[in-house]
Each structure stands twice: as structure tokens, then as C-alpha cells.
Amino acid sequence: MVRSAAVLIREHGLAPTGMREIAAAADAPRGSLQHYFPDGKDQVVSEALDWVAGQVTRPLLPDGTDRPQPARKVVADMFARFRRILELTDFAAGCAIVATVADASANDRLRAKSAEAFGAWRAALTDVLRRGGAGKARAERLAVTAIAALEGALVLARADRDLAAFDAVAKEITALMPR
User: In this model, does residue 11 exceed pLDDT 90?
Assistant: First the structure.
């Protein structure tokens, strides 16, 4: 149900994603949502954002070796994952975190949860960049820049229904990263 909520939000936005739609997408009885999410939509969306944060940060975590992964490769792979999502969904999928912020800016709980998800992503990417040789301040700036560029590239690709702008942003941002 949490994954279904995240997918619906990234494809349709927060506002049109209701409890009924989440239950249907998860092929779950509607009553199960009230059972597992007694606080309603805010609770399932909060948990969906936690799931999304895990999905975007997991590939950035150390691979169990002492060798740092090259920052350029990590950022290129991050863009490649989102590019595949755009292709697989025929440009329907964006980012559930952005969709939540856009639709719930007046909802402090969901805005804060979105900020937390972005914070986890920034921290994981900053760590990759630091292990790759960037100083702390530069790593933090590059992480913010890469995520902001990725989100903008997603919006442009979805609007244009074309990957040209996305690929241009990916190439330029990857080139900014330390080797």
C-alpha cells in the first residue's frame, strides 16, 4: 500500500491520490487502509515518502567495501535510474517528494516529511561526494545542485515528453562532479 501510494503520487500528484485509489492500486480491501493507517491519508503519504527516501538513498550508500565509488559514476547512475523510470512510464512518473511538496505546501506534516526525505537524499549524496574527495562544503553544494538539477530535468522531460533536456542536464551535472 505504501509503494502504491508513492507510485500514484509520483504519477498523478498528491491531491488526486485518495485512499480509495491507493487501495485499488494495491489490490487491497479499502478497510485495510483504515486498519494500517488510522491517521488517514497523511499517514500513508508520510510512510510513502519514507519509502521513496529509501529508494533514492539506497543506491548511494557504501557498497560494503572501503573503496569510495567515483562521484561522477554515482551521479550518472542516479540520473540513469530516473531516466529509466521516465521511459518505463512514458513520462508519467516524476518524483513523489516534489509532487507532495507542490500539493501540500500548506500541510506542515507532509511538508516537513518531504523536507526530511530530501534531507536524507542530500546527506547520502553529500557522503558519496565526500568519500570521492570533495571537501565538506563543496560536497554539500554539489549534492544540492545535483538533486535540484535532477528534479528540474524531470519536470522538463515530462513537459516536453522528450529526454533531450534531461540528458543535457545529466551530462552537465555529471561533469561538475569530482572524479
Answer: yes
Q: Cβ distance 161 to 107 under 8 Å?
A: no
The one-letter amino acid code at 115 reads: A
Q: How far apart are CA 75 and CA 41, in angstroms?
A: 33
* Alpha-carbon dihedral 55, 114, 50, 7, rounded to 10 degrees: -60
Residue 69 DSSP label: P
Query: Would you give the end-to-end CA distance of the chain in angstroms?
Result: 40
Look up the CATH number of the domain holding residue 120.
Answer: 1.10.357.10
Number of structural domains, the chain? 1
Residue-wise pLDDT for 134-165, tens only, equals: 999 999 999 999 999 999 999 999 999 999 99
Identify the domain containing residue 166 by its residue range.
Answer: 2-176
The set of residues, in sequence order, having a beta carbon less than 8 Å from that of 65 and lying 6+ positions away, is none
Confidence of residue 133 (pLDDT cuts 50, 70, 90): confident
C-alpha cell at 160: 516536453
Q: Residue 151: CB partners within 8 Å, gap ≥ 6?
A: 95, 98
